[in-house]
Design brief:
The protein is of the alpha/beta class. The chain is built from 19 helices and eleven strands. An eleven-stranded mixed sheet has the order 1-3-2-4-6-5-10-11-9-7-8, with helices on both faces.
């Protein structure tokens, strides 16, 4: 199979072809690294990758499959002496031989884990995150660690100590954040799939900006063991893929309870066959008006056309009022910054990580280490977090935000008592230009309006690319303030109730098959 043909396969299709020996894992890994060699110097999606080790693992997988095939046809296969030979009757792992990337705030034993920060630039992970262990058990070839906003704080992947990642769709623009490296790698063919993490939208927003599918699972359904904490009550790992079936397959692999994470829970897996037969007839879908007002022309068109498509296929789509959504961004930044400031207090220059030189006492060591080791955005969140947790403001800021979060959860519960899911944009517009966010950080925070509600309430949400008609790209320039943005991806988002992954991924697959021409 030619490189070009290999790279058109989904992760599921590639695994099937490898199992059937129509293509080798080594060929797939080589194809991916050829793309990395071609694009990485410009895009900078990776912080680290390991070509020779990945090729070695791929060759071991191919040899195992060859021995397995031989043993199935041999006269006495049970006597095979091939080292590492798999039992021919044993089911092969679902992602066997598939090259996958992981975000650099997930631990991989023996590899650097920097979180995009100077503070951890030389830190070697002593163990692997549970979700990465599950990926490896599923046969994936982990090929590298992807770039990210420092400690997951940012919406552009420009806030990495190691330099910005660019959007493969337009290198003058950001790929989104904080999982922008994972999204960019998948978008340019530098991986067949990737794991990112989502605190306030860090999987969904970069997926939208890069024309991909990004799934935020129900909070707790994926173990946080080995995931470096930003806001512990919201952090969750999830897939960034080129299609909904791959997203469901990766979710099924990484989900499940973990004795090492007391917040982890048992969640139902997604039935991919039910995704294929999903029927919109009778489904009730809500569109909160607070999440569609003020967005770009592209986003309004996307929601209008998606709503029309859903109605034409038997669903009911209602515009609803959720006044509490006007406060979601404020609630999120109060609570997430408070949790971040507490989590980041461990980086003090004493136990591990960066240590400043020239300090004369312990107080100066703390100050110099944290001043030199953290970037601007991280310092901004720490300051806000310390402010809302201070004795003067704890009750009127932090406690009030906690109460408002509980009210928001109840508001969503009320909506889901009447509707199957919520439809809204993933972001207010297309990917911003480089350095545009730095000029006005507050506007970047406000732009999280569509993603933070699901995060605050622990709900599953999926972003998928909206395919425009050809007529859209021919629209007159005066219809948009940024004509160059017309060809960029636009993401639409489906939010479901807790453990509603089957529902939202089924609807997303329906849209992917019927509403989009690829």
């Amino acid at each position: 199979m030619e490189k070009k043909e290999i790279l058109t396969l989904s992760a599921i299709e590639l695994a099937e072809n490898i199992r059937e020996q129509k293509v080798t894992s080594e060929e797939a890994v080589r194809a991916v690294f050829e793309n990395i060699d071609e694009h990485e110097c410009k895009i900078h999606a990776y912080l680290d990758f390991w070509k020779e080790e990945s090729l070695k693992k791929a060759r071991e997988i191919d040899e195992m499959l060859a021995n397995r095939a031989y043993s199935e046809t041999a006269l006495n296969p049970g006597n095979s002496e091939a080292e590492g030979l798999a039992d021919p009757g044993e089911e092969l792992p679902p992602l066997l031989g598939v090259p996958v990337a992981v975000k650099d705030n997930l631990m991989l034993s023996g590899r650097k884990m920097t979180c995009g920060s100077k503070m951890l630039q030389d830190y070697i992970a002593p163990y692997s995150a549970t979700c990465i262990e599950k990926l490896e058990k599923a046969g994936a070839v982990i090929i590298g660690k992807t770039n990210m906003d420092e400690f997951g704080m940012g919406a552009s992947t420009e806030h990495s100590f190691f330099g910005a990642t660019l959007n493969p769709k337009d290198t003058n623009r950001v790929p989104g954040g904080s999982s922008g490296g994972s999204a960019a790698a998948v978008a340019y063919g530098g991986a067949f799939a990737a794991l990112g993490t989502d605190t306030g939208g860090s999987i969904r927003q970069p997926a939208a900006f890069c024309g991909l599918v990004g799934l935020r699972p129900t909070y707790g359904s994926v173990s946080r063991h080995g995931l470096t904490s930003f806001a512990s009550s919201m952090d969750v790992a999830g897939p960034v893929t080129r299609g909904t079936r791959d997203a469901a397959a990766l979710f099924n692999i990484v989900t499940g309870p973990d004795e090492k994470d007391q917040t982890s829970i048992s969640a139902p897996k997604v039935d991919l066959s039910k995704m294929e037969s999903y029927d919109l007839t009778g489904k009730r879908i809500a569109v909160p008006k607070q999440l569609i007002s003020g967005g770009s022309i592209e986003n309004r068109e996307a929601i209008d056309r998606t709503s029309e498509f859903l109605k034409n296929n038997g669903a009911t789509v209602d515009l609803i009022d959720m006044p509490l959504l006007d406060y979601a961004v404020a609630i999120y930044y109060i609570l997430s910054s408070a949790e971040a400031s507490a989590n980041l207090s461990r980086y003090d220059g004493i136990r591990y990580g960066y240590r400043a030189s020239g300090a004369e006492d312990i107080t100066e060591l703390y100050r110099k280490t944290r001043s030199e080791g953290f970037g601007t955005e991280v310092k901004r969140r720490i300051l806000l977090g310390n402010y809302v947790l201070s004795s003067e403001h704890f009750n009127d800021c932090y406690r009030q935000a906690e109460r408002a979060r509980d009210m928001l959860k109840k508001a969503f519960a009320d909506v889901f008592s009447k509707y199957d899911m919520i439809l809204c944009p993933t972001a207010p517009g297309v990917a911003p230009l480089l350095h545009e966010i730095d000029k006005d950080p507050l506007s970047a925070y406000i732009a999280d309006l569509c993603t933070v509600p699901a995060s605050l309430c622990g709900l599953p949400a999926v972003s998928l690319p909206f395919a425009r008609k050809e007529a859209d790209s021919a629209r007159k320039e005066e219809d948009t303030a940024d004509p160059s943005a017309k060809a960029l991806p636009v993401g639409i988002q489906l939010i479901g109730p807790r453990f509603g992954e089957q529902e939202i991924l089924g609807a997303a697959r329906f849209l992917e098959k019927g509403g989009q021409k690829r």
